[in-house]
Design goal:
355 residues; 5-stranded mixed sheet; alpha+beta; globular; 21% strand
Length: 355
């Protein structure tokens, strides 16, 4: 089987860069895209803001404390979507095998090309010329390595991990840099003495799976530079969701019911827009101590109306015991799609569907 050539393209501070492109007053200044209210969260920070410790998912209040001169910009999602489509049209000139991960990043399989590095350089050049934005690119033989490589020389970077370099590169890599290893997993690995790829490689597959479940099998491969996942151009949408964060925490069930109705209305609108059908209704609650829970109910047939969606979500809310805590955030979603063919599966919905 011919060796794969995978490119991972990651736009640099995408939302913030679009805002700085469109508004000269923001250029060279620390900006954060997101809501500036007391319960707001940073979606993206410009590179001028990052030396202060401002980053995505940081609370707006904390971001202001770290960088008092920070400029908050309300997100313009329709603009970001339009720019994203413009970039994907560039990708399509080089390959049909495009797997978008979000608006600002994607995998491309260019195994048919003589040089993936030259293709990545050309794509970066065209993105800059056609959108006035910079992108970073990673090139290697699989998705895991390409994604690591794209982050290696940000911003506006291009890094290739050639086959002969894989073993040494992976061995020296801190485990935090591996695809799919987050802060909690990294801490557990550190406690086990696993700090680098070389350390990870000392563990056999069975031991890793005992410690980390199914993901342990992936980690075993990652430590050896192995990732057999293909670039999948048509990913099946598995769920649609929406949520709202309260200005003040509350345990008022009447208010929660009202806000849940508004969230369900947004979910129903998205279901119709995406022509999505699912049989599982999921309720999400985040408490004032930031602990979160989900509750779900699977129906015999797909959710067929807003009233059905709200009725089931309200039943789930009514059955929830708050344990004396107040609610910070409430969300709802629909999963278990017919397309995904996952009947009877209780889904954990990713509540990051902004569009």
């Amino acid at each position: 089987m011919p060796q794969r050539k995978i490119i991972h393209i990651d736009m640099d501070a995408f939302y913030a860069s679009v805002e700085q492109r469109d508004n000269p007053a923001y250029r060279g200044k620390p900006i954060a895209v997101g809501h500036s209210g007391p319960r707001g969260v940073v979606a993206t920070a410009s590179y001028e803001a990052r030396p202060y410790g401002v980053h995505s998912a940081l609370s707006s209040a904390q971001a202001r404390r770290l960088c008092p001169q920070l400029i908050f910009v309300e997100p313009r999602h329709e603009v970001y979507k339009a720019v994203s489509m413009q970039i994907r049209q560039i990708f399509a000139d080089y390959t049909d095998l495009i797997e978008p991960l979000s608006l600002d990043e994607a995998f491309l399989d260019v195994s048919h090309e003589r040089s993936a590095t030259l293709v990545a350089r050309e794509i970066k050049r065209r993105i800059l010329a056609e959108t006035q934005l910079t992108a970073s690119a990673g090139v290697s033989v699989n998705k895991m390595l390409a994604k690591i490589a794209s982050d290696y020389r940000k911003p506006n970077g291009l890094f290739t991990i050639a086959p002969a370099q894989i073993e040494a590169f992976v061995a020296s890599l801190p485990v935090e840099r591996f695809f799919g290893i987050g802060e909690v997993t990294a801490q557990k690995m550190h406690a086990l003495g696993i700090l680098t790829g070389a350390d990870l490689r000392q563990w056999d597959r069975a031991s890793l799976m005992r410690q980390f479940g199914k993901a342990g099998g992936l980690y075993y491969g990652y430590a050896r530079g192995i990732d057999d996942r293909e670039v999948v151009p048509n990913r099946i949408r598995k769920s649609i969701s929406a949520e709202t964060t309260f200005v003040e925490d509350t345990d008022d069930r009447s208010r929660l019911a009202t806000d849940l109705a508004e969230v369900c209305d947004e979910v129903w609108s998205r279901l119709q827009r995406h022509r999505f059908q699912g049989k599982t209704v999921v309720l999400k609650l985040k408490f004032d101590n930031f602990k979160q829970i989900t509750r779900s109910k699977t129906l015999p047939t797909p959710v067929d109306s807003l009233s059905t969606l709200y009725r089931v979500a309200q039943e789930l809310l009514t059955a929830c015991d708050f344990g004396g805590r107040k609610i910070r955030l409430i969300g709802a979603g629909v999963g278990n799609s017919l397309e995904a063919d996952c009947d009877g599966l209780q889904l954990r919905l990713p509540f990051d569907d902004l569009f």
